[in-house]
Structure formats: C-alpha cells, structure tokens
Design brief:
single chain, alpha/beta, eight-stranded parallel β-sheet, seven-stranded mixed β-sheet, binds N-(iminomethyl)-L-glutamic acid, binds fe (iii) ion
Length: about 425
C-alpha cells in the first residue's frame, strides 16, 4: 500500500490563525493577525508539511483526519516564563498580602521564595516530578505546548541540579516542550544570609559550572531587584553564565526600577521579564538592543500592582511576549489564555497583539522562532483546536476554556472530555 500523503490532516478548519511571519512582529504590524477560512494543516512525522486552503488538499490521503469545521486553529501557546516545577503551600502568604504586607517583606521574614526552597529541598526527584507534571498538564489543558521552566528553589548545587533534572524529565515525557533556565540567583539562601556577594560567588564558581557540565540549562536568569540581587551582582551572574555558553534573561524592574532593563540590553539578554517599573530609558535601550519584553500581567494582577506599560513597549518597537510566571508566590496560574485576557482587559493590548505575544513572539523570547510559535511548513507540529468561530471569540467570553484538542510534535496529547 502507498504511504499516505500525511500522517494527520486537520481540515476543513473553520478559521486558521497561523501566526506566521519571517520575524517576530512589532509595532503596527502586531495589530494584524491574518486568518484563513476553510483551511487545512497537514502533518508528517513531528512537522507541519502543509498549511493553506482546504480545497488544495481535500483529496489527499492521511492516516488520520480531524474535522475542525466551526473551530479555530492556532499554534500551541509558548509560555516563556514559568517557575515549574515547585511544590509546597503558601496560601497563608496570600492572606498576609491581602491584609497589606508586601511581597518582599514576606520574603524577608523567611516566607516567600525561601519557603518554597524548603519544600523543594525536602522533596525527592520523584515527588517533585509528580508536582511538576500536574502543573504542566494543567498548562496543556489551556493550550500551552512549550514552557520555559526555571530552577531557583534549590539554591545549592544538589537541589538546583535536582530541579533542572526534573525539568528534563518533564520534557522527556513527550507531552510538551521544555526550555530550561538556571535561576540559582533567585534569592540568597540561609547558608549565605547577609552575604549576597558570597552567594553570587558560589553561584558563579559552583552552581553554574555544575549545571552546564550536565547540559541542564539553555538560559541563565537572575532576580535583579532590591532585596534580591543588585545590578553588579546580577551582571556577574549573567556574564559568568554567558561565558559558560548560557543565554542570559532576567527578572527586571519587577517591583522597583533598579536599571534591570538597561542591564538586559548591556548583556545582550534574550529577554527581560516583568518590567512593571521599567524606566523610559530602559525601554528604549531594550528596543535598541533587540531584547524581548516578556510581560507577566498575571503577576501584577495577583500582587495587585499596576500593569507593565505594554503600549510603551509596543510603541518603542520591542518584541513583546506574554507569560504566566507560574509560581506559588506571585502568580499561581498555569493558564496562559487567562493571562492573555488580562493583557487585553488590564494592559490595553488588542487580541491580535496578544495572540502574537503568546505564539511567535513568545518563541522569539526563547530564541526558538525558527522552530516554534507558528503553523508553517517545517515547524514542529504543535497546534490547538479551539471551539470558537474566530480568534476574537477566545476573549469574548472570559474565564472559559474552549480548548478541544492539542497536537504536540504531530501527536494528539490532549482532548477535551
Ligand atoms: O517571578 N520575583 C521572583 N520570582 C518569582 C516569584 C517566585 C516566588 O515567589 O516563589 C516571580 O515573581
Ligand atoms: Fe518569575
């Protein structure tokens, strides 16, 4: 018997939004999201082999055909900033914050990041993997097929390695793609209390080399913030990571403007994230250096802070991406669609802008725009079938989940019940 033309043919598709372009989108071009009615997507192996009008492949043979008439097909979402995996319960901190205590003050009292550090240190790899899997599968059930995932709750050699090995194991399970980041410079651990410089030295001399020796990370990240690491300490960590072959990215200007955005430009970071308090000069420097602005409206919402100035980043010509920041302290959600809705209704982004920001632009924030983030020939076959008539309808009802089917690498990995 002849080999079929495709392994899977998705079609006819009511509305295809491929989110494809040669470059990540910026400025005015973000306002247009081309769509195709009566479309089809053909898949061979783990790749997209065809994306275009259904009529041109209506008679093609396929191992499996998926009828998506009436539905909207988009690339699988890319979440370019998460703290998966973690475990432990910090609900009491939520109550403290709602009663007026600040996020950083809770951290200074041994709660916050150090609380999750204790839970992660106490857990073995299997338990942490189980907790990470729950989070990852929940992200999948909201359309996320790729996650950036950080360490940063180990804060010593064995436990940072443990977290990063779990991230690798999550990717090996084959339901989603993971891009790992070493965030050893997340907070000063108790062993170095009062000595952030000593801990930074330890990160540079011990943790980062151990991580790169096992090839466990693509990126190096740092929490550049008052009460965490200052500009000089952050620069040291990022430069050391770069020297070891890692790509820098950073938590910048989340709570106060420490000049993190400008540091991101200086070190040639792939992305600077949060940016609630970024200065106009910082924004201009990022645009000039081509640093992506990864905005995390879920964090602003959850911490009850003003949103990052998304329109300023767009006007400056930055590549804007959106992410959940999924973590147990400042943004406990895996739901990137909900975060996208916050970007629309809280930050004043248009649905078209938001959809570029969770697909192609989010892939660009991870340096993966050639491989991920669009439905286009040659890209990995990661796509979602949503039970809505158009992309706009993802935002018309809110707080709903109209996801029907997810394909990851050409395999069906999720089906709504
Ligand atoms: O991105 N700000 C630093 N890190 C996380 C929060 C981590 C935590 O609270 O556990 C963030 O907001
Ligand atoms: Fe974060």
């Amino acid at each position: 018997m002849n080999k079929p033309d495709f392994d899977i043919l998705v079609g006819p598709i009511g509305c295809l939004a491929a989110c494809h372009d040669e470059q990540p989108r910026t400025g005015e071009a973000l306002k247009e999201l081309p769509t195709l009615r009566n479309a089809a997507v053909g898949i061979r192996g783990d790749r997209i082999a065809y994306a275009g009008p259904y009529k041109d492949v209506a008679s093609a043979s396929a191992e499996e055909k998926i009828d998506a008439r009436g539905a909207t097909v988009l690339p699988g979402f890319v979440d370019p900033h998460t703290h998966v995996p973690f475990l432990g319960d910090r609900a009491s901190e939520l109550s403290m914050r709602l009663n007026g205590m600040s996020y950083m003050d809770i951290g200074k009292k041994g709660g916050g990041i150090l609380s999750t550090m204790r839970s992660v240190r106490d857990a073995n790899e299997k338990t942490l993997l189980r907790a990470g899997r729950v989070l990852a599968r929940s992200a999948l059930s909201h359309g996320t097929t790729t996650l950036e995932a950080k360490s940063g709750y180990g804060l010593n050699v064995p436990d940072e390695l443990k977290q990063l090995r779990v991230i690798k194991a999550l990717g090996d399970e084959g339901f989603q793609g993971f891009l790992p980041t070493c965030l050893a410079a997340h907070f000063v651990p108790p062993e170095f209390e009062g000595d952030p410089d000593g801990y930074v030295q330890f990160v540079c001399d011990e943790i980062l080399p151990a991580v790169t020796a096992e090839k466990l990370a693509k990126f190096v990240d740092v929490f550049c913030e008052e009460g965490a690491f200052d500009l000089e300490q952050s620069r040291r960590v990022l430069e050391k990571g770069k020297a070891l072959g890692l790509v820098p990215r950073l938590h910048a200007d989340e709570i106060v403007d420490t000049g993190g955005a400008a540091l991101a430009a200086e070190v040639g970071a792939a992305s600077a994230d949060h940016l609630l308090a970024a200065s106009d000069q910082g924004i201009a420097a990022m645009a000039e250096a081509g640093v992506c602005a990864t905005l995390l409206p879920g964090t602003a919402f959850y911490l009850r802070k003003p949103y990052a100035p998304a329109r300023k980043f767009i006007e400056a010509g930055c590549v804007v991406a959106l992410a959940t920041d999924c973590n147990p302290g400042s943004s406990y959600t895996t739901n990137l669609l909900e975060v996208a809705a916050l970007a629309v209704f809280g930050m004043g982004m248009l649905p078209e802008e938001v959809l570029w920001s969770v697909t192609l632009n989010a892939a660009a924030a991870l340096g993966e725009q050639q491989r991920l983030g669009s439905i286009a020939e040659g890209k990995r076959a990661d796509l979602c079938i949503w039970n809505v008539p158009s992309p706009l309808h993802l935002f018309y009802p809110y707080g709903e989940n109209p996801l029907q089917t997810v394909l990851f690498g050409g395999r069906k990995v999720y089906e709504a019940t």
